[in-house]
Specification:
Length: 102
């Protein structure tokens, strides 16, 4: 189960549009506990700020921008672990989730 989110505006510096945005209940809970805004993470993801991603994963994201494949970002949540932001441009949908939600 996922919760739909509505983004207030598109950022002109985005490399791609996130499409429909959803967040899993577990990801929402830890982000709220850490006082982090999921919309801010989605914006970073769409601008190509792939944070904690290893070099090969960042390269895969850059290739995915050209080929229409799925794009994945990971972001640390202090004291809570990692949260993933994944966009599937074929649908198009962006999901904020925990690795355990996958």
């Amino acid at each position: 189960m996922a919760i739909h989110m509505t983004l207030q505006h598109a950022n002109p510096t985005q490399l791609f549009h996130p499409g429909v945005c959803v967040i899993t209940p577990a990801a929402l809970r830890i982000l709220e506990e850490a006082d982090q805004d999921p919309a801010g993470l989605i914006d970073r993801h769409c601008r190509g700020d792939w944070s904690a991603m290893p070099s090969l994963a960042r390269q895969a994201n850059e290739q995915a921008l050209r080929t229409g494949k799925s794009i994945l970002s990971t972001y640390p949540v202090p004291g809570k672990g990692m949260v993933w932001v994944q966009t599937d441009p074929a649908v198009p949908v962006t999901t904020v989730l925990l690795p355990s939600d996958y």
